[in-house]
Amino acid sequence: MELLTRCWDKEEEARPSMQEVVQDLNNIAEGWKSNAVSGRTPEEVHTSLQA
């Protein structure tokens, strides 16, 4: 996940600000909501993200 690698990869760039983290989490939450509405399971979403 991009969010996690960004937090831990301190040598590449500074840690993201709290606002950036919150924005990323909001984007993830929106994605989960739209996937729930479309009736896809978390497993299906995970596989489609890796494709």
Automatic annotation (TrEMBL):
Name of the protein described by the UniProt record: Serine-threonine/tyrosine-protein kinase catalytic domain-containing protein
Species name: Tetraselmis sp. GSL018
